[in-house]
Design goal:
400 residues; 6-stranded parallel sheet; 17% strand; 8-stranded mixed sheet; alpha/beta; Rossmann fold
Amino acid sequence: MRIAFLTPEFVTDCQDAGGLGNYLNRFGKVLVEQGHQVEIFVSSKSKPRVLQHEGMYVERVWPYPGRWWMRIVERLLRIIRAENDWDTVFRAWCMSRELSAAMERRHKTRPFDIVQSSDLMSVGLAVRRTRNRLHVVRCSSACDLYNIADGVTGRINMMMEKIERTSIRKADLSYAPSRLVADHYRQHYSIPMEVVRPPRAVEATPLEYPASGLPPRFFIHFGQLCRRKGTIWLGEALQRAFRSEPDLTMVWIGRGSFQEVDRALAGLGRHRANVHVLYPMRKPELYSVLKCAEAAVLPPLVDNLPNAVIESLMLGIPVIGTKGASVDELVEQDKTGELVPLGDVDALAAAILKVWRGQSKAKKGFTWQSAIAMEMEPHWAVERFFALNASRDATNFKPA
């Protein structure tokens, strides 16, 4: 089959792209290995061009408006940006329009069987329904859930949330990688949504020798360092954990707001030196550090089957995570980690101490073999993806 993916990010433009970019890289490679043709259309500020990546056709699409009247609107919105943020909505619309146009140009010469767009930035909003071609939206995030967790409010954010839901409703099918997000859309917005797990894989081979200067024993917190990922909550829990275990040591790696990281570390006092904050690393180096950790502390307030948890489990590293934020769909209590109630500072501190003292049944070095791990085996993940698409009435879809 010929499959097109519309996305605001991909690894060709950012080697350490977020969860969406890394997922598409993994999934695309698996599809190519199984004989399918994969084309990626990515919104990029780099010079527009076509390139080959791991057997995939990748087209960089300039995200800014191309028509003269659109450029005038953009300029006017930028001038009055101090008073409103409507340019955010306009740019999202432009990105969707340009990505869709690029895909349609290819479709005219080499028709696609399936077009998958991300709900992130509503990049599939402009995709037209076409006979013999399915449009599928993968819900990488739920904008309203994420905004609540990040403490973000305002009418522009509400507008973007509505646009995201509109883009999902316009598609032929939609799915999410986690039950949490799928259930959210079903229950709150009556949007039919399936669950399709992503293929699991370690993105790169860990370096044989990790970065120098690492503590002899430590826990790791990595990925995005922000409120939604539990960084501030973790800082509060560490204040209590250090009172009982002053030798407890952590390594934090990732991108995030300096203000939020400083806020998370502000209350640690003399124990601030026990938390080593490192710059973002390329995957081989990151994995080499992860393999040295005793456990990963990844307690998001809300998430959608986070890559950091998947990567930790695949490397046999126990995860201290959150109940009710999709981490509990991945982690098994007392087998592959510890799960704590959402926002419970005392419970998170207790779990950290339990694992640090070796009192947890979840031990480093396990082989991840749970039911969901089996679902995420590349073969089964791809089979489930095609089974979802085959569920459409055959009279409405005939492969090109």
